[in-house]
Amino acid sequence: MKIIARNLARETTESELLAMFSEFGLVESCVLILDKVTGKSKGFGFVEMPKHNEAKLAIKRLNAKKIGGSVIRVKVAEEVAPK
Q1: Which of 2, 7, 36, 49 has its CA 20 to 30 A from that of 77?
Q2: What is the per-residue pLDDT for 79?
Q3: Ordered domains of the chain (ranges, CATH)
Q4: pTM for the model
Q5: How confident is the model over 51-82, as pLDDT tens digits?
């Protein structure tokens, strides 16, 4: 299941994002989105967890949690249809 984590503190690293979700199970991939010009975090990232029950638990426990001074938003990432 692909998950989006938004409103992350700009200082949050990809390894910290991975650690947050790893507490709930296996993480297949983790990508923090960076600004192409500055190389700094844009404040959101994507995590893929293969087991739906673990992914749903991570969403439930992490959504609206205050981490690094920011209340993060976590939900299932919507698939974008190709154009």
Answers
A1: 36
A2: 76
A3: 2-76 (3.30.70.330)
A4: 0.91
A5: 999 999 999 999 999 998 999 999 999 877 56
Q: Which of 66, 58, 72 is nearest to 23 (CA)?
A: 58
**C-alpha closest to that of 29 among 67, 59, 2:** 2
Nearest 10 degrees: Cα torsion 45, 51, 53, 56: 10
3-state secondary structure the chain: CEEEEECCCCCCCHHHHHHHHHCCCCCCEEEEEECCCCCCEEEEEEEECCCHHHHHHHHHHHCCCEECCEECEEEECCCCCCC
Tokens describing residue 11: 């200082």
Asked whether 43 and 5 are in contact (CB, 8 A), the reply is no
CA atoms of 52 and 37, how far apart (whole Å): 35
